[in-house]
Design goal:
Elements lengths: L5 H29 L2 E2 L4 E2 L2 E2 L11 E2 L2 H14 L6 H16 L9 E2 L5 E3 L4 H17 L4 H19 L16 E2 H15 L5 H18 L10 E2 L14 E2 H18 L2 H17 L1 E2 L4 E2 L2 E2 L5 E3 L2 E2 H15 L4 H23 L9 E2 L10 E2 L2 H18 L1
Antiparallel strand pairs: 1-2, 3-16, 4-5, 5-6, 7-8, 9-12, 10-11, 12-13, 14-15
């Protein structure tokens, strides 16, 4: 990892923030707002081909639309001068018309003609719908009431139809296994977004419930690592899949629990966040490639050595969150990690056309030849936003 004079760190963090924000505003957001979206239709695409720099007209997953809504609106806060509100408004209307089911949940995908290709319920998609509604409500006053109503309706639908008596939500009705921590992580993120703009106690109550699920069930009480898959009572899922601990999710939960712990003055959450970070940093980063890779087993042995772009963004966010809660040599270490994580992100940009990225790096350091996925923009924007905020506040 990087070793530098601590007196230089502040300047280097500022430099990284300025460079990455400039790349986002001048390269990434413009191409995703024009090539990666069709502003006239109010729609967006799943990916952009690196060779042709044109969109691929393939099935469009529901989770991508809320992510793009967030990306454009957050980009505007970072200085992007594109038509953020117009894009977000069009995507919001399209999302409601193309993806909302008659039952009240949001379906999984449609094709380029907006014909349903996957009608199924996925808790992950509902979490991102709630997240998108928070972005609309918080950034577009004329649509706030509408977004609040949609969010309230969806939350009530989930409570009525998918509530797990053991806490959180079920994956299906009737039940199917395994239960998953990942959609709850994004539900947690959505609730924190709503907390920031709404006085409705439902969001704080659900935030607290998910945080407690993480602290009491998702996180192994012996090792401090966070699992992915569970039985209906939130005990670890039986068999090999119950051993999965994704490196990027250790970082992402560390970021969320640090935010929640600070807001609640909960020392236990901050301790847990530091331990999650320590696990991912110690066991989930390949020092040869200087990137975090996909997954560990519950004994912290390597399970999946493929490195994905999104994991680097979560490393950066977690390092920032924990730097903000630390002092002295511990803070200096997190500051150094901020630079390492930012550099790891930029590796995925370096060999792609301007504003695009590589998604998967093999164990030997080569990148998979595939289109740039639109879903990554949300991760990138959030990481750069956190870096920008941290650099501005130092």
């Amino acid at each position: 990892m990087t070793t530098i004079d601590k007196n230089q760190v502040g300047e280097m963090v500022q430099h990284q923030s300025a460079e990455m924000t400039a790349w986002l505003n001048s390269k990434a957001l413009p191409i995703w707002a024009t090539v990666g979206a069709d502003p006239g239709k109010g729609e967006c695409y799943e990916s952009i081909d690196l060779a042709t720099q044109k969109p691929l007209f393939v099935t469009r997953r529901a989770r991508v639309v809320p992510r793009q809504i967030y990306s454009f609106l957050e980009g505007a806060k970072l200085g992007w001068t594109g038509q953020a509100e117009d894009l977000a408004s069009g995507l919001y209307k399209w999302f409601l018309s193309a993806y909302r089911s008659d039952e009240g949940y949001f379906i999984s995908s449609v094709d380029v003609e907006n014909q349903v290709t996957d009608q199924s319920f996925d808790l992950y998609n509902q979490a991102f719908a709630l997240f998108a509604f928070a972005q609309i409500a918080g950034n577009m006053p004329e649509s706030r009431q509408d977004a609040e109503e949609h969010a309230s309706n969806l939350l009530n639908y989930l409570i009525e139809n998918y509530r797990n008596p053991q806490g959180g939500f079920r994956e299906a009705n009737p039940d199917k296994l395994p239960l998953c921590s990942n959609p709850h992580m994004h539900m947690f993120e959505a609730c924190l977004a709503w907390e920031a703009i709404s006085a409705d106690p439902a969001w704080q109550e659900l935030s607290d419930e998910i945080a407690e699920l993480a602290l009491n069930h998702y996180i192994d009480p012996v090792t401090g690592g966070l699992r992915e898959f569970f039985e209906l009572d939130w005990s670890p899922f039986k068999g090999d899949n119950g051993r999965v601990m994704e490196s990027g999710h250790q970082f992402e939960w560390a970021w969320l629990l640090a935010r929640w712990g600070r807001s609640r003055c909960d020392a236990g959450a901050l301790i847990a966040a530091r331990r999650l970070y320590d696990i991912a940093w110690t066991y989930g980063i390949d020092e040869t490639r200087s990137v975090t890779f996909m997954a560990l087993n519950d004994d912290f042995s390597v399970r999946d050595p493929i490195a994905r772009l999104w994991g680097q963004t979560e490393w950066l966010k977690a390092a920032i969150a924990l730097a903000e809660t630390s002092q002295g040599p511990e803070r200096d270490a997190y500051l150094s990690d901020i630079l390492d994580a930012a550099n790891a992100m930029r590796v995925f940009f370096a060999s792609a056309p301007d504003g695009l990225w590589r998604d998967k790096m093999s164990p030997d350091g080569d990148f998979e030849d595939e289109p740039a996925p639109a879903s990554s923009l949300y991760h990138i924007v959030c990481a750069i936003s956190e870096l920008n905020r941290f650099a501005a506040g130092r």
